From TrEMBL:
GO terms for cellular component: membrane. Its main location: membrane. It comes from Plectus sambesii. It is found in: Membrane. Keywords: Membrane, Transmembrane, Transmembrane helix. PANTHER family: RUS FAMILY MEMBER 1 (PTHR12770:SF31), RUS1 FAMILY PROTEIN C16ORF58 (PTHR12770). The keyword Nucleotidyltransferase does not apply. The keyword Metal-binding does not apply. This is RUS family member 1. Residues 50-200 form the Protein root UVB sensitive/RUS domain.
Length: 204
């Protein structure tokens, strides 16, 4: 590549020397070699990060491998999951306070028993629900996906209200844990069914 050397002068004094690309662009102006290299480097960096993002977060062969509604569904599902995570964190804080965290009069034994009853109810509920409705989740995934979302919001609301009803606090957190156990089974099964529905073809 041919280059031309240009010397900048300030007030009659010699300035710095710059190498310019001898080729002219469509506006008949010269461009410095360094500027051209930086532009190509920036384009390479953007292409690399775009390819990395698509490889990590999008399915293989996107967008040809999925249906047209895939991106819209994922966008709203991501917003819903983000909102659920925020409210879930607030609900966990409320349950911890209700269990005695930060209360000097609360005992560790009482908090442990409450937590064991809460988790135990969830485990039993998960097993019973999977036994009773497990075969219906794939065939009617839209219905159970909606049920899972409603129960998840219900569980969060119960957790937020539970500390204000100390006399039935244990029963309330057990009920919210039961709702979440159904959410875990129904939500996981329906998500898999919906994902398979959006697949056009598989990459071996």
């Amino acid at each position: 590549m041919e280059t031309a050397s240009v010397v900048e002068r300030y007030g009659g004094q010699n300035g710095r020397s710059i190498e310019w690309d001898a080729r002219v662009d469509k506006h008949n102006s010269l461009q410095p070699i360094g500027h051209t290299q930086r532009r190509r480097s920036n384009q390479f960096s953007l292409s690399y990060f775009k390819a990395f993002f698509m490889d990590v977060f999008l399915p293989q062969g996107y967008p040809e491998s999925v249906t047209d509604d895939y991106m819209e569904y994922q966008m709203w599902d991501t917003i819903q999951a983000f909102a659920s995570s925020i409210t879930g964190a607030l609900a966990t804080e409320a349950v911890l306070k209700g269990a005695g965290v930060g209360d000097e009069t609360a005992t560790a034994l009482a908090a442990t028993m409450t937590w064991l009853m809460k988790d135990g109810t969830g485990m039993v509920g998960r097993i019973i629900f999977a036994w009773a409705r497990g075969t219906q989740l794939d065939s009617d995934c839209k219905k159970w996906r909606l049920v899972a979302d409603i129960l998840n919001d219900t569980a969060i609301m119960i957790d937020l209200l539970a500390p204000h009803f100390r006399f039935i606090f244990t029963y309330l957190v057990c009920l919210s844990s039961l709702c979440r156990s159904i959410v875990g089974v129904a939500g996981g099964a329906t998500r898999a069914a919906l994902t398979q529905h959006q697949v056009k073809w598989f990459i071996q």
